[in-house]
Amino acid sequence: MPLKKILLVYNPVSGNAKFKSKLDGIIDAFQRRKILLATYRTTPNDSAREFAECVKIFQPDGIISAGGDGTLHAVINWLMKFNFDLPVGIIGSGTSNDFATHLQISDDENYFDVIADNRTRQVDLGLMNGREYFINVASAGVLTSIAHEVDARQKNSLGKIAYYIHGFGEIPNFKAVPLKISADGKIFNVDAFLFLTLNSPAVAGLKKVVDAAQIDDGKLDFIAIKKCSPRKIFTLTKKILSGNCVDDDENIFYVQAKSFEITSTAELISDVDGEIGDALPIKIECVPRAIKIFCR
Question: Which residues of 102-131 are buried (b: 16+ CB within 10 A; e: fewer)?
């Protein structure tokens, strides 16, 4: 029986940049399972075409993304762009690994057995403006720039806490913006500080923000923090950090749908899985069961 082949795509600077020290042990773990592991090291100048050439040459049986949500985002988009029907594994080594957290994936021997046994689950993806996929969240508003403003050294030393520290400092400066939301054709108008369009219930390192969110239900979950006082924002934040769902909170607008169109008279830039996305207006739709993920 020929060796199974897996392509490991890893970001050498994700999180605390310590993944490189684990690489030899991971290669050994897969070789013990009769799996040949090839590596693709990401750089700021990566292109989908280079990745595609690597896949065509190596012809792997699956892909593993080792990095944060941004690395996983890139891998998913590369696969979808070239219609590669390959299952994806996740080794979370970034500051934020929300999708892996939701699926309770960790880089241990049990998970390597899952990959060796080809155990997968089909999951939905989100698609923005018909060209950019996301696996976890698309957002916009006063907090979405934090991931891009926090100093890299602070992120590496403090992890997700760095986002919260920065966010708390900005609360007094929050300004609500008018949003017009079309959810499967139904129109809503909301003044909000920010919105999140979720595929999974986990975001910003929090395990469950929305109770109803499912990664394979053919729908996306839209929540917005409505205009309210700083005191209510602090109370809502405390509720979220305590691990409580907020979709039924009086200061939250929530709706579930297959597709959304979001516009605003304010100038807003979206964030897609932690990466800078398109400016509003944007159209977001669910792509049901678009990709397979290695998981228990």
Answer: bbebebeeebbebbbeeebeebbbbbbeee
Count CB atoms within 10 A of the CB of residue 6.
Answer: 25
Domains of the chain are 4-118 (3.40.50.10330), 132-289 (2.60.200.40)
CA–CA dist 143, 207 (Å, integer): 18
What is the biggest distance separating any 2 CA atoms in the chain, rounded to whole angstroms? Answer: 65
Which pTM value belongs to this model? 0.88
Residue among 20, 9, 4, 90 nearest 50 (CA): 9
d(CA 95, CA 221): 24
3-state secondary structure of 107: coil
Q: Which region, left, alpha or beta, applies to residue 18 given φ > 0 means left and ψ of -120 to 50 means alpha?
A: alpha
C-beta of residue 171 within 8 angstroms of C-beta of residue 141: no
Percent composition of the chain: helix, strand, coil (DSSP 3-state, to 5): 30, 35, 35
DSSP per-residue codes, 137-162 = EEEEETTTTHHHHS-HHHHHHHTTHH
- Give the pLDDT confidence score for residue 160 in this predicted structure: 42
Query: What's the average model confidence in pLDDT over 116-141?
Result: 96
Q: Which residue has the higher pLDDT, 80 or 155?
A: 80
Residue 111: helix, strand or coil by DSSP? helix
Q: Classify strands 186-198 and 177-183 as parallel, antiparallel or unpaired.
A: antiparallel
